[in-house]
Each structure stands twice: as structure tokens, then as C-alpha cells.
Amino acid sequence: MNPSLASWQPKLVAIAAAMPGDDGAHDTSHLHRVWRNATALLAEHPDADALVVLAACYLHDIVNLPKNHPERHLASRHAAVQAVRELEAAGFPAGLLPGVAHAIETHSFSAGLTPTTIEAKIVQDADRLDALGTVGLARMFYTAGRMGSGLAHPTDPAGLHRPLDDKAYSLDHIAVKLATLPGTMQTAAGRRLGEERMRALMAFREQFVAEWAQPA
What we know:
Blueprint: H1 3-17, H2 28-42, H3 50-59, H4 75-90, H5 97-106, H6 118-129, H7 133-147, H8 172-176, H9 181-184, H10 188-211
Helix pairs in contact: 1-3, 2-3, 2-6, 3-5, 3-6, 4-5, 5-6, 6-10
């Protein structure tokens, strides 16, 4: 890690950690994983500004509303505003602030915004990668538990004879949303990694359905 990134990383972690919240799916460990994902994508995009990516990775959830909150789709916009405010106070390079704000605002699936810079594309992909694979699976069930969702439909866990409903059944979230994420990746590396992690999720889903107790 270059000196500038090494200098700013602990400052960004401290800013994020100071924000209120108790969501274990969007904690400091999540931020570290998103940055690790981003470093893998940055390796294929040397033209990207790594400091912009670093700041956005650590501050993208600085305002985090629950999945079922009526203003969830606005959370990333609020986060971008708050992040700029915090970065200005910390002496972050002023010329990079618009890039950080754009990356934060467009990272969210709920917001439905399209990233237009390579930095924002990397941050969006890096965050979505953490929703996939085994850690993503754990985060999915954790979030479903906080929302009061069931594990799976009692008699049709695969949703073969009913509409899928990921608000009611956590397992449905794999097919309803997570399976769509690899196709939304903005970078080639993101798509490649996303597809790899998605295969692990689908294998889990198949095994879960096989083991789920159903009436004889």
C-alpha cells in the first residue's frame, strides 16, 4: 500500500467507526472486505485513483438505513453528503471529494444509480461482491433475522409453485436478488469474481432445498 493510502486508511476507519449503528452485516469488517475486493479490481485498473476508492469503500455506509426502511433508496445520497462533510473536516484532498461522493452515492443497489467513473464502478462491484459467496450468505441470513423473515417456505423452499418472496423467506433472496448481481458488475474482474461466488451460493441453495424438512 502506498504511503498516502496507508496514512488515510486508519483515519477513514475511525470516521466510520464513530458513526452510530449496530448492523453486523455493515460493520467495520464489511468495510475491510469491500476494500480488499476493491484492491483486486484496482490491480486491473491502474488508471483509477486508489485514494478515491479507499475513501468511498470505508465511508459508503456512513449512513445506513435498514433494508425495509421506506427511505432505504436515499441512504447512499445521505451517506455521500455526510462523507464529504467528514472528509473536509479531516483535511482530505478537496479535488477528490466529488469523485468520492459519486462513488458512494452510486454504490447502492437500492438507489438504482449508474456509476460513471472507474472509481465508482470499482466501489459498486466491490460492495456487491461482499453480498456473494459464503460471507454474503451469512450476511443474508443475519439481515433476514433482523427483519423477522423466515428461513424458507415450509413446503416449497425452491419456489417452484409459488411467487418468490424474499421479504418473507430468506432463501428466496438468492434467486430474487443475489443471482442478478454478477450481471450488474461494472468491471470484467467484478463479473468474473461475482460469477465464481454465485456458483457457491447456488450450490448451497440446492443442498438447503434437499435437506429442508417437508411433509411426507
